[in-house]
Specification:
Length: 211
């Protein structure tokens, strides 16, 4: 590789480093803007949406303007979904505490069923937000599709959980990453894995229509 090639490659790397840091900054700012309680979910959907546009080839979009527009557009639906998941998660947590306190007094089928519910809950959460960032549909349709895709594409679901857990774990070990890259890298890989599935589903749907 000649000197110009090295300079060009470094320039591209720095360009992406800067863009990811700015996207992460926007996630934090807009989460705070909504006092976290109302801001974190629409900021997450906006971050996923910007990442989707980048992966889709729209790498020169105005990040601030697009983020702000998506944040406003998805504010209600993202909060409805986010708080629905938060409430269900809270109920599941209290049920877990009850099961843990029962010390084997319940029949084995109860904890078995409980962990299946936990599994389905996680699948639904990790697929619903990318669906919201990718498709226009009702909340109920997103929830239904998230569970179906999560189950039928279980290998991608597992990959998502591993990646998200790894990024969060690394960020806790190196907290300096949190204000710069944690959320943007998480969203970029999260939506990239999702789009891998969505593209195949879209192509299959188009092929079936053309038959």
């Amino acid at each position: 590789m000649n000197a110009n090639g090295v300079v060009t490659s470094l320039d591209k790397i720095m360009h992406w480093v800067t863009k990811l840091a700015f996207l992460n900054f926007l996630w934090i700012v807009f989460s705070i803007f909504g006092l976290f309680v109302a801001g974190v979910f629409p900021a997450t959907v906006a971050t996923l949406n910007i990442s989707r546009k980048w992966i889709g080839g729209q790498q020169d979009i105005k990040i601030w303007k697009s983020f702000k527009s998506i944040y406003r557009q998805e504010f209600i639906s993202a909060n409805l979904l986010g708080w629905l998941f938060a409430l269900i998660g809270l109920v599941l947590y209290f049920n877990y505490r009850l099961l843990a306190a029962s010390q084997g007094e319940v029949i084995f089928i109860v904890p078995f069923a409980f962990y299946i519910v936990i599994f389905m809950y996680i699948l639904t959460v990790i697929w619903t937000f990318p669906l919201l960032a990718y498709y226009q549909a009702s909340i109920m349709r997103h929830l239904k599709n998230a569970l179906v895709i999560g189950l039928t594409k279980i290998h991608i679901s597992i990959a998502k959980v591993i990646v998200i857990f790894s990024v969060l774990y690394l960020s806790l070990e190196l907290p300096v990453l949190i204000p710069f890259y944690t959320f943007s890298i998480c969203s970029l890989v999260w939506i990239w894995l999702s789009m891998h599935v969505f593209s195949k589903l879209d192509n299959r749907s188009i092929s079936e229509k053309n038959l």
